[in-house]
């Protein structure tokens, strides 16, 4: 007598799926159903900023809270997403694979909220041209990822002009170099380290005037550089006058001259030639955020922007 086996509808297909998908991948797929959106956003921000601290600033929470969210996310997925060291946070192989889908999930969330026709917000920020350079695309990318519905209007000018715009209400916030001790308000975002930057093949002989790339007067960084050279008894001559870090940096990369630039915003192909040419050290300057906005959403957007700027120094 031939025996028969009763087949439960759907059981064969389910068994086939379980057989096809290995256990680890299946756990990941099942965990995806219960992802904590804030934890995913914390992971994306930490990956972009390479810092738990910066991610916490952007989310207006604590570093320990961000770390805990990501740990729970990793436990739920059964994967280690981040490699943690005392000085560095970097993506693991699984974290790198998860990052883009995580971005899409966060973007979909923002898109779903935006479907209700929420008013588009605009944030007008004046920023010193000494503070933005080659890192600007990454800065804007991080801001867009954190707040995709925000229209960021960025006006780049001298620190003095930016502060004047803030005082007359033309902008929401000003991010500038601290000029002197007369104005001590504002939030210090970071300390900008300045150095004598030049092309690797730039030539200079002691005793000859040092060829300088500067910005037009009045400029506090220009004054700082000239004062340092004068105090050290080093002759100099203007070889190029630009209108911001981008143009001054281009002159440096072209090998035309040496420039006093923030290390964070200097061209990637530029090198510090201060020790090589026995040039005087340059002081650091605080990068300061000034704002009088009071609504919580705009203040949180400024926190995200400040965190993104800090992250460009990592």
Features:
alpha/beta; five-stranded mixed beta sheet; 314 residues; Arc Repressor Mutant, subunit A; D-Maltodextrin-Binding Protein, domain 2; single chain; 3 domains; disordered N terminus; 11 helices
Please characterize this protein's 3D structure.
With 314 residues, the chain is an alpha/beta fold. The chain folds into 3 domains: 104 residues, Orthogonal Bundle (Arc Repressor Mutant, subunit A), CATH 1.10.10; 98 residues, Periplasmic binding protein-like II (D-Maltodextrin-Binding Protein, domain 2, 3-Layer(aba) Sandwich); 90 residues, Periplasmic binding protein-like II (D-Maltodextrin-Binding Protein, domain 2). The chain is 43% helix and 21% strand. It has 11 helices and 12 strands. The strands form 4 sheets. A 5-stranded mixed β-sheet has the order 4-3-5-12-6, with helices on both faces. Strands 10-7-11 form a 3-stranded antiparallel β-sheet. The chain has a two-stranded antiparallel ribbon with strand order 1-2. Strand 1 and strand 2 form a beta hairpin. Helix 3 packs across helix 5, helix 4 crosses helix 5 and helix 4 runs antiparallel to helix 11. The longest helix has 22 residues. The chain is globular and about 70 Å long. The N and C termini lie far apart (76 Å). The N terminus is likely disordered.
């Amino acid at each position: 007598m031939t025996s028969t086996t009763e087949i439960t509808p759907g059981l064969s297909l389910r068994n086939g799926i379980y057989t096809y998908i290995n256990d680890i991948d299946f756990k990941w797929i099942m965990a995806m159903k219960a992802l904590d959106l804030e934890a995913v956003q914390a992971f994306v921000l930490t990956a972009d900023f390479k810092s738990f601290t910066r991610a916490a600033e952007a989310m207006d929470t604590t570093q320990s809270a961000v770390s805990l969210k990501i740990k729970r996310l990793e436990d739920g997925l059964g994967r280690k997403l981040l490699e943690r060291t005392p000085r560095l946070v970097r993506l693991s192989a699984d974290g790198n694979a998860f990052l883009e889908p995580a971005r899409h999930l966060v973007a979909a969330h923002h898109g779903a909220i935006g479907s209700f026709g929420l008013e588009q917000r605009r944030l007008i920020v004046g920023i010193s041209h000494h503070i933005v350079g080659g890192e600007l695309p990454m800065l804007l990318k991080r801001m867009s990822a954190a707040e995709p519905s925000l229209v960021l209007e960025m006006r780049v000018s001298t620190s003095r002009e930016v502060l004047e715009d803030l005082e007359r209400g033309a902008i929401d916030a000003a991010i500038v170099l601290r000029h002197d001790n007369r104005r001590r308000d504002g939030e210090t975002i970071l300390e900008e380290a300045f150095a004598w930057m030049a092309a690797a093949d730039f030539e200079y002989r002691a005793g000859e005037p040092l060829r300088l790339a500067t910005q037009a007067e009045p400029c506090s960084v220009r004054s700082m550089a000239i004062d340092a050279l004068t105090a050290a008894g080093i002759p100099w001559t203007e070889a190029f006058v630009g209108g911001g870090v981008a143009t001054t940096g281009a002159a440096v990369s072209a090998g035309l001259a040496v420039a006093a630039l923030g290390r964070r915003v200097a061209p990637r192909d530029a090198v510090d030639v201060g020790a090589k040419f026995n040039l005087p050290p340059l002081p650091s300057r605080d990068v300061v955020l000034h704002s009088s906005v009071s609504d919580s959403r705009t203040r949180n957007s400024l926190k995200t922007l400040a965190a993104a700027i800090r992250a460009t120094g990592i």
